Each structure stands twice: as structure tokens, then as C-alpha cells.
Amino acid sequence: MSYRDPLNTNTRILMGPGPSNVHPRVLKAMSTPLVGHLDPQFLEVMDDIKVMLQKTLQTKNHLTFAVSAPGSAGMETCLVNLLEPGDEALVCVNGVFGNRISDIVERCGAKVVRVDAPWGEPVDPEQVKEALRNRSPKLVAVVHAETSTGVLQPLEPLSELAHRAGALFVVDAVTSFCGTEIKMDEWQIDALYSGTQKCLSAPPGLSPVSFSERAIKVLKERKTRVQSWFLDLTMVKNYWQGAKRAYHHTAPVSAMFALREALQLVMEEGLEKRFMRHKQNHELLRDGLQALGFGFLVKPEFRLPMLNSVVLPSWLEEVEVRKRLLEAYDIEIGGGLGDLAGKIWRIGLMGESSTKNHVNMLLSALKTMIEDSPSAITKSLKHA
Amino acid sequence: MSYRDPLNTNTRILMGPGPSNVHPRVLKAMSTPLVGHLDPQFLEVMDDIKVMLQKTLQTKNHLTFAVSAPGSAGMETCLVNLLEPGDEALVCVNGVFGNRISDIVERCGAKVVRVDAPWGEPVDPEQVKEALRNRSPKLVAVVHAETSTGVLQPLEPLSELAHRAGALFVVDAVTSFCGTEIKMDEWQIDALYSGTQKCLSAPPGLSPVSFSERAIKVLKERKTRVQSWFLDLTMVKNYWQGAKRAYHHTAPVSAMFALREALQLVMEEGLEKRFMRHKQNHELLRDGLQALGFGFLVKPEFRLPMLNSVVLPSWLEEVEVRKRLLEAYDIEIGGGLGDLAGKIWRIGLMGESSTKNHVNMLLSALKTMIEDSPSAITKSLKHA
Questions:
Q1: Testing the interface with B: which of A230, A232, A256 to mutate, by most B Cβ within 10 A?
Q2: Which of B4, B31, B255 sits opposite A27 (nearest CB)?
Q3: Residue A6 lies in a domain
Q4: Residue B50 CB partners (closer than 8 Å, separation 6+)
């Protein structure tokens, strides 16, 4: 393909760690002619997004909106606004994204206190309790659904510990958002960021976020300026709320159209039904994979429904299989990250990608490969 | 409109300071089903974008790509990567965006040396020369096309002064990109950021950037980490180039499809022809507006072709006219910012919005309003 050629991509089945497949209604919404970023009609779109984000996050938080950049920028938004140089933050780390939080905390000039857990396990509240003894950090941060390992972190015990220590409770909900329950208010989460390209099934590029009154108080009492202009909530909030909207940056209009449509699809399906669909398709995949000889990295009670970290049989040439899945079946699945590279696959069943048909397609393709061309995908035979 | 209703926006004629109207081919490209952000087919899309950005910026710079967020994030990318705490930066300020540069420089912990010019005038190279006497700042930053005032800043004299002082030359090309000539290599620009939603006529949400070898050397010799994780070029570059692409963040896949298509349209038209079109439509608008009694803020030789800052007749109820233009004609134009609010309009003729028909539509609408309902749009009559 030359840069002069028309765009000519395959129709992929997206079963990796995101982006997931996008509903035709969302794709169509993006082809809507643009309106200005301060057009009264666009401000209505922003208001609609805010209302639907509040509903999907089960929160009344006034400061609920979408950062005009992907999930990592949402993470950075939460941290640069709540931390100041010299602050202390307790970060729970059991995968790539916990590490990323820790990295950004340091870049804020704050001190990190880490509570680590092995990759594939949740963080132990007892260890967090221990680490908080005689400490009063500004915030406690944790990843709800660790996309690098497939672990679901129970949030309520950590929230209680954080608040007892006088800390804000910050949650990464990039992969859990719209795929499993998040009760932002009931669980007393103070700052939360998420992504659009996982269980919401909108294109990547925006990061829904929400902040509690406690978090806003911390923001208001800052002694230093937020180190990022683009992510500075003291200004961004005046674009998203208030009687007179103030220009800050030019919002990604088309992506917001898509976000609105994707949120509508979630509301139409209903949260409970959507979470159940994610759970049931996970179970279908799990049973099929186990029958083919695959294992799971994570204990059943902490497994994510939308991101399956699958332990590979030792004989499998995993890179070759993923290549064949993509080239011959147009199915994308994800490899492992860091120490888990070559040892696990990350199979996403997110949003529109979470269907019985997709599970069956993947299982059938794997079965066919194993039965029809074992030599090509088997280590021992290949290297014999 | 309730959040439950289908998206129902008007078809606007976008003649404000951006976004501009988007070509149907670009809208259609966005409705392409997604591929993964590490899919070999997506990496090809990224390569195509890089090649076309190099051509449109007239540069061979290897590090040329699109930041996954709007132009303001592109501005921040250039500054946080090139500046370290304690550095000095000379910033030319003659409008909102020069001010924004100055603001971000401070947030980097660097010292700002400002050279100010009145809003509506270019920055005087003699003053820059004077300010650089006995100084060797890390960089000199300037806005090529100041969207808040409509001023085109000649870049070559400032580039020479910057380099003579041992500084990098950093340029804001958000509004000039694809609407007037930018010779990045010949003019020895070291770091440049732009936007997609102005003369390129792609939706807002991405910021094309490019860095010279001199800038990359400065980046490599940093003593401290870049304060933003999301914008840290030492990591982002490994996603955009090299044999093995490393995951950094999830790129906005659909927006990149749109960017590729919009760049193709620019290549098909040809840069010279495109710049001429912008110039000619500006002249058509200028003549028509002057006949109606409007003036221009900027001297002819420094006027932007794509952003016309129009001085309003003293009798005009400008907010009312803009409201009527939007509601009765679906035409969006921009008001003034800061001290220029109420005194000027900012009329954009950018990319797809720069057509003879759009100019004629706007002039006819204004003429009709002035002739048919003078009392509603005239200050003296209204308040009499």
C-alpha cells in the first residue's frame, strides 16, 4: 500500500486488549458533519455525555466528563491535578498499569509508596493496611481491571483503608468501565479515569473521568499550579460546566459524537444485562479453552470477564498462532507484556467484541489449527 | 434534545477559528471499522501519515508524527520535552497562543523571557535581537499564525536570530499548517506543532509535530525526566518508528484514518494550489467586507489568508449578528478573544471551508441582515 492508495484495511475481529469492535451506529455517528466546539448544539452533546457517564459510573459527581485524549492521559489528569511536589502517594502495583501510575506520581515530584503483588494476583488489603500504618498519603491509587494480567481488584476494602488514612481513593477503570460494575459513589471513589475503546466500544482517543467533592476540594486547595496546561482541571472544568462555557482547547468533536452514541447503546442494553453478557461470554470462552489445553493465570474469583489472561501450553509456538489468527482468520488477540510475554495470551471480550459468535469463531480457528497443522504451531516438532 | 434522542445536529458552514468543514471522504474514512493499534495494517497507516506530514511540512525530519491529542497538547509536547527546570526560553507574545506558550514554559519550571507586541501586529525581530543580547536561551518560540488576532509572523528572521544565540527555534503552526507555506527544513525550524482541524480540514483531536536532529539531540541530553508521561517523546517515538514498534498508549485509530485521508486530499490538490486558493478566497472576502463597512485589524502584509480578523463598525450589535448567522443561516464565525472581544470577528476560511461559495454565502447573509433588519442589529437604534 502506498500513501496515495485508498485506505484498505481488513475487517478484523478485535479480541485483544482493546480497541474492541465498534457498533455500526457509532461508526456512523462519526461520519456526521462537524459542528463547532462551542456551538450550542455541541454543548448539548457534552451535557448528554456527562449525564450518561454519571449513570454508567453510578455517580452524582458534578465534575464528570471526557478528557480529550486516551486513557493514559486520563490517568495523568487524575494524578497531576491531585498531587503536588512533596506529596506522598500509595500506589498498588500488580501489572503494567500500576507501574505506570507509580511512574507518573514520580514525575509529579511526589513520593511513591508502593504495595506490590505478583502479576496475576490482586493486591492484598492487609499489605495496604500495613503500609498505611503511621502514614497519611495524599491518595491511594489502584487499578480496578489490570489489563496486563486479567486481575479484577476488589475496591471496597481498599477504599475504606484509604479514607481511614485520610487519603483520596483513585481508581483506574479503563478496562472495567461498562464491562463490570463500578459504583463510584457507593464505593467512595474520589477520582476515576477510564477509556472508550474497551467495554464501551467507542474508538480510542477519549478518557471519561469523574471527581468527587473531596477531590475537588483538594484541587481547590492546591498551592502550586498543575504542571500540565492541557490537563489542568481548574481550566478544563469551565469548558464542561457552568452557564458560560469558556474556550480551553478544541474538543475532538467527531470522537464526542461517537462517545455519545456508544453510551446510548450501553443505556439501551442496560448495565446489568451488559455485565451479565460479559460474564457469560467469558465462561463460554473459558470452557472452550480449557478443553483445548489452555489454563488461566488468575484464580477464578479474581478473573476479569472482559480480559482473559490465558496460560499457553508449553508446546505452543504462540507468535506463529497469533500471526495465523490475524492473517488467515482476521482475529486479533493480544500477547503477554513484560515477564508474561510468550507465556500468556490476553483475549479480550469487550463491549461489541463480547459475543457468543466471536468466542465460537476463535475456538473453532484454534481447534482447526491444532488439528490440521500441528507441526507449524508446535515448538518441539518445529525445532526437531 | 434528550440524551436518549438520536444525534441531530444542523449542517453548519464552519467559518470560525476552527474546526473547519470536513470533506465527505474524511468523514467516510472515520466510519471504517477499526483495526488494532499495533495491527500491521495500522502501522502502515502511521507510516503513510508520517510521509505525508513530511511532505506538507517540507521536511526530512525522521521524528515527524501526530500527537494523540489536540493542538494544545502538541504545544505542550514540544515544550515539556525540550525544556528542563531552570532553563530559559524566549517567547514571542502577540496574542492568546503566545501567552499559552509562556504559561506552559513556566509550568515546566523554566524561566520565560517575553518579547511582546501589540495584538494585531507581528513581533518585531529587532526587539527579539535586543532581548537575545547577552542571552543564550534553550529555545525561542513563536506563533506562525496567531489565531486570536489574524497575524502572520515572518519566521526566517527570527529563526536566524534564535540559532545565532544558540537556541532551538520552536514554531506554533496550528493555523498555518496546510493553508500557507511552511518550509520546516529551509527555515531551520527545530520543533513544530500544528492542528488537524484548521486548514487540513480533519476533525480536531490530533496534533502533527516534527523535530529536527538538533531538537532530538537536546532531548537525548536531558538530565531530568520529561514531566508528562503521556507526551514523553523518548517513549512515544518508539511507537512511531523503528523495526519493532513498542506499545506506549492506544492511538486514536479512527482519527488517524481521518488524518490520512485529509492529508491525501492535500497532496491531490497540491500545496501551491491550496495556498493560492486560501489567498484568493481571503481577497474575495476582504473586498466584500470592506464594501459593507468592515475594516481589518492587521496591516495587509501581515494578514493571514485563513483567519480574517475583521474590525466591526461601531454601530453593529455583533453578538446578535453572530447569533442570527448561526440560527438563520447555519454559518458559524468567531468572536474576538480577550481585549478584542466585541471589537473584532474572526472569520475562518480554512481548508474545505475556504471556498468562493462560502464567502458569497456569508457576504449575502450579512448584506440581507443589514438591509432588511437594521434595527435589530444596530446599537444606536436598538438602545434609542
A1: A230
A2: B31
A3: no
A4: B64, B65, B240, B241
Query: Do A254 and B230 lie within an 8 Å CB cutoff?
Result: no
State how far the Cα of A59 lies from the Cα of A157, in Å rounded to an integer: 19
Cα within 13 Å of Cα(B138), Cβ side: 25
Give the whole-angstrom CA distance, residue B312 versus residue B316: 7
Q: Which residue from A minimizes the CA distance to B6?
A: A261
- B19 vs A32: CB contact, 8 Å cut-off? no
Of B52, B250, B267, the CB nearest to A204: B250
Whether residue A8 lies inside any domain: the answer is no
The domain boundary, picked from B267, B302, B320, lies at B267
Contacts of A33 in chain B (CB under 8 A): 9, 11-12, 21-22, 27
For testing the chain A interface, which of B2, B8, B34 should be mutated: the one with the most A CBs within 10 Å? B34
Q: Which of A5, A26, A31 to mutate to probe the B interface, most B CBs <10 Å?
A: A31
What integer pLDDT is reported at residue A245 of this predicted model? 87
Whether residue A152 contacts residue A299, with contact meaning beta carbons closer than 8 Å, is answered with no
pLDDT per position in chain B (384 positions), as tens?
799 999 999 999 999 999 999 999 999 999 999 999 999 999 999 999 999 999 999 999 999 999 999 999 999 999 999 999 999 999 999 999 999 999 999 999 999 999 999 999 999 999 999 999 999 999 999 999 999 999 999 999 999 999 999 999 999 999 999 999 999 999 999 999 999 999 999 999 999 999 999 999 999 999 999 999 999 999 999 999 887 888 999 999 999 999 999 999 999 999 999 999 999 999 999 999 999 999 999 999 999 999 999 999 999 999 999 999 999 999 999 999 999 999 999 999 999 999 999 999 999 999 999 998 888 888 864 444
Cβ-Cβ contacts under 8 Å, B35 against chain A: 9-10, 12, 14, 332
**B227 and B154: one domain?**
yes
CB contact under 8 A, B9 and A33: yes
How many Å apart are CA A27 and CA B157, to the nearest integer? Answer: 46
User: How many structural domains are present in chain A?
Assistant: 2
**Grid cell locating A51:** 449525564
Buried b (16+ CB within 10 A) or exposed e, A102-138: bbbbebbbbbbbebebebbbbbebeebbebbeeeebb
Q: Looking at the domain assignment, is residue B243 inside a domain?
A: yes
> What domain range includes position A126?
24-267
Helix (H) or strand (E) holding B331: strand B331-335
B22 to chain A: which residues are within 8 Å by CB? 33-34, 254
Report the helix count and the strand count for chain B, using DSSP H and E: 14, 14
Contacts of B6 (CB under 8 A, 6+ apart): none
Is A2 within the bounds of a domain? no
**Contact yes or no for B265/B23 (Cβ under 8 A):** yes
State the smallest CA–CA distance between residue A25 and chain B in angstroms.
9
CA distances (Å), A142 to each of A95, A183, A217, B225, in order? 11, 15, 21, 23
CATH number at A347 reads 3.90.1150.10
Q: Which residues of B touch A69 (CB under 8 A)?
A: 68-70, 73, 230
CB within 8 Å: B37 and A19: yes
State which of B249, B267, B285 marks the end of a domain: B267
